[in-house]
Write a sequence for this structure.
């Protein structure tokens, strides 16, 4: 029997995200920055909240261009704190700015995508989880990546956020084996 992963639903936006984005390998450095920032904003909230505000975030954060965001000042933080289209949290907004600066350093030395994907030998991990109960909230690898991101200057990137990010960008295929999306993503 093939059923979507149990977390996907009941809203259509969740079905679409699960069926077309979640777990699909993403190698674009800018897109990886966006997803990491959104996962950081999700901390303490449900992912559906972020999904529903994602277009608002994209508009407010100018397409998540790290080169633009890295130049932002307190005036930009104030502007974003009044934007109802996003999650208004000073610490997370300030982290997005400092993370843009950290992203630029990594991007210009080794490539942010290369930096992240090197942890999994540039191909998705395939743990073949039987049920959602088998999916961990974090792993030793997400702890390592989190520590390395923090050393590089990133914030709001703890091991649980990093593991959710790894799942979302396809670094690990955590679609359960009975999900119709599992098999197509096993070839990476």
């Amino acid at each position: 029997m093939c059923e979507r992963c149990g977390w996907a639903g009941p809203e259509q936006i969740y079905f679409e995200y699960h069926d077309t984005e979640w777990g699909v390998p993403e190698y674009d450095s800018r897109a990886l920055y966006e997803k990491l920032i959104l996962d950081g904003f999700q901390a303490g909230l449900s992912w559906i909240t972020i999904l529903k505000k994602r277009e608002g975030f994209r508009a407010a954060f100018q397409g998540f261009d790290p080169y633009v965001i890295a130049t932002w000042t307190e005036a930009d933080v104030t502007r974003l704190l009044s934007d109802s289209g996003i999650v208004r949290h000073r610490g997370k907004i300030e982290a997005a700015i400092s993370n843009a600066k950290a992203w630029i350093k990594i991007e210009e030395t080794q490539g942010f995508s290369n930096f992240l994907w090197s942890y999994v030998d540039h191909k998705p991990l395939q743990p073949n989880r039987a049920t959602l109960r088998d999916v961990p909230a974090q792993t030793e690898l997400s702890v390592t990546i989190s520590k390395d991101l923090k050393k590089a200057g990133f914030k709001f990137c703890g091991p649980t956020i990093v593991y959710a990010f790894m799942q979302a960008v396809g670094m690990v295929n955590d679609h359960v084996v009975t999900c119709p999306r599992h098999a197509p993503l096993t070839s990476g």
User: Anything to note?
Assistant: Residues 110 and 178 are 37 Å apart (CA to CA). The chain has a mean pLDDT of 96. DSSP finds nine helices and no strands in the chain. The radius of gyration is 16 Å.
